[in-house]
Amino acid sequence: MKYLMRLVSLAGGALFAAATVFGQTAAEAPKYPVTEVDYVAHDFKFKSGEQLPELRLHYRTLGKLTRDAQGRATNAVLILHGTGGSGQQFLAPQFAGELFGPGQLLDINRYFIILPDGIGHGKSSKPSDGMHAHFPSYDYDDMVAAQHVLLTEGLKIQHLRLIFGTSMGCMHSFVWGETYPEFADALMPMACQPVQIAGRNRVWRKMLMDAIRKDPAWMGGEYKEEPAQGLRTAQDNIVIAGSAPLVMQKTLPTRDAADKYVEDAEKRASTLDANDLLYQVNASRNYDPSARLERITVAVMWINSADDFINPPELGIAEKESKRLKNGTFVLLPISELTHGHGTHTWAVAWESYLIQLLDKTAH
């Protein structure tokens, strides 16, 4: 029960904001020295033609950046969060506690870890800062372009050791691999598909967005108070999308426990901002890297979980599309005591053996 209730508390931290969906939040204080910085990208242009004179890109770093004799970064690792999340979520013990410590796979004494908040998320620029529904209609290409600006102009990094992405960050990893093919030594996308979002995955997203837009209190995004009914319905969709039968049956073994979980989840809908959530989900509307998968030439370790509601294995998409990756491996994690549905991507103990393989394969 403790695990699921922590996931519900995501509201404000990791999407679906409230469920197990796109990531976990770090409820505990960080155990590692973390530097937090705002980088401002000036006159940032979006694909829509819109432009912001100042786009704030918040990020966290751990460790120390090293460069070779030519000034090229040698140990930088970019870790990308899911919809509604932020870089903060990767400081949770089930992730940082398994990876960032001495002798661990991404030991911060060896690696420079970069944890950005995507556009519209965390402490980066977002609709709730004041522009509301007048905020530029960003998409995944814009989010990746902003990450690239942050790295190249803000941190003066032209090369990455690894790009690791969860859920939306998984999809961003594929966009990175196609848009900037040689920028990273390796990609590790987790919990997504490199195709247009369609079928049930699109259905629940549209239901969520429609629930907000059709609530009279939304007022075209210029609401004085949050559209509570729309947000409750949106959160109900989130809870289902992020669910996993085995873990929920074990942690909510009675009717009363399940009912209490739903009630607590709906209470936390009041912590969400409707425009922020709407923009976050809508950013996936035109995602579809399928036509250019052959452009990805670096090593890819792509991992999904068999109990993922959002990316169910019976679709067979991953098995088909992974064959088009020139240097890729696809792994489907079987349902086990270690998997947590879609949120398995943040529980390193379930997949860290595959990260070892990827790092060894691409070692210099």
Descriptive keywords:
single chain; disordered N terminus; 11 helices; 364 residues; alpha/beta; globular; Rossmann fold
How would you characterize the overall build of this protein?
It is a single chain. The protein is 30% helix and 15% strand. With 364 residues, the chain is an alpha/beta fold. It has one domain: Alpha/Beta hydrolase fold, catalytic domain (Rossmann fold, 3-Layer(aba) Sandwich). Strands 1-2-4-3-5-6-7-8 form an eight-stranded mixed β-sheet, sandwiched between helices. The N terminus is likely disordered.
Biggest beta-sheet profile: 8 strands, mixed
Q: Determine the N-to-C terminus distance.
A: 44 Å
Low-confidence stretches: 1-29
Number of strands: 8
Q: Provide the spatial order of strands within the biggest beta sheet.
A: 1-2-4-3-5-6-7-8
Concise account of the structure shown:
By secondary structure, the chain is α/β, with parallel strands linked by helices. The chain is about 30% helix and about 15% strand. The chain has a single domain, classed as Alpha/Beta hydrolase fold, catalytic domain (Rossmann fold, 3-Layer(aba) Sandwich).
Topology:
Elements: H1 2-8, E1 35-45, E2 51-62, E3 76-80, H2 96-99, E4 112-116, H3 140-154, E5 162-166, H4 168-179, E6 186-190, H5 199-213, H6 228-241, H7 245-251, H8 255-267, H9 274-282, E7 299-305, H10 317-321, E8 328-333, H11 352-361
Parallel strand pairs: 3-4, 3-5, 5-6, 6-7, 7-8
Antiparallel strand pairs: 1-2, 2-4
Helix pairs in contact: 3-4, 5-6, 5-9, 6-8
